[in-house]
Amino acid sequence: MTYNIVLSEASAMHRVRAAGETELQVGGPWSGERAQLKTAPLLYIGPAPSFTSYLDKKVILLLRDAKVVVGVLTAFDEFGNVVLQHVFERIIVNSLYCDRPLGLFVGRGENVIFCGELGQDGPEMPAHMVLVTEDEIRSAQRAEKISSHLRWTMRKRMEFLDSDVG
Q1: Which stretches make up the Sm domain (predicted)?
Q2: Which residues pair with 115 in a beta bridge?
Q3: Whether residue 60 sits in one domain with residue 26
Q4: Residue 128's domain spans which residues?
Q5: Is 17 within the bounds of a domain?
Q6: Which residues contact 57 (CB under 8 A, 6 or more apart)?
């Protein structure tokens, strides 16, 4: 089976041809080089996302560590690195949320999972969400962590009892 994978870089497009499921034949400046695949090959990797439509607009970023930041996108580069101004971290626990101010934010492109524009019209948060202070959201986070740990412990105990019977 042969796949064509297109990789996008700032200067040029490189075509990659995969032979089988375990070997890559690389074209372009790396002609003739081979690479082994650990998993099934990707069929297509499109061009890097363009942030030009988001410049000087209020955006929301979901980061790889599950943090959510909101701010005005002021700069970006070809690697997806971003610079935001007037940034705050949005912390959400169940139906409570808190906006913790950060100021200026410089984020590496590899850490950005999602970027979306926040519309100017309409509310930023659904009506059932309640804005609370930073202390209240921290105590809600602690309570959620304890509750989650308790659920996990109970699930493990139930699995242990189920495995004992059979």
Answers
A1: 46-121
A2: 61
A3: no
A4: 52-132
A5: yes
A6: 72, 73, 117, 118
**pLDDT confidence of 13, banded at 50, 70, 90?**
very low
Which residues are registered as beta bridge partners of 117? 59
SS3 of residue 84 by DSSP = strand
> Of 71, 143, 78, 144, which is closest to residue 109 (Cα–Cα)?
78
Give how many domains the chain has, as a whole number.
Answer: 2
User: How far apart, in whole angstroms, are the C-alpha atoms of residue 73 and residue 58?
Assistant: 7
Q: Of 18-22, 66-70, 142-146, which range is least confident?
A: 18-22
Whether pTM > 0.85 for this model: the answer is no
**Max Cα–Cα distance, the chain, nearest Å:** 63
Output the average pLDDT for the chain.
75
pLDDT for residue 38? 38
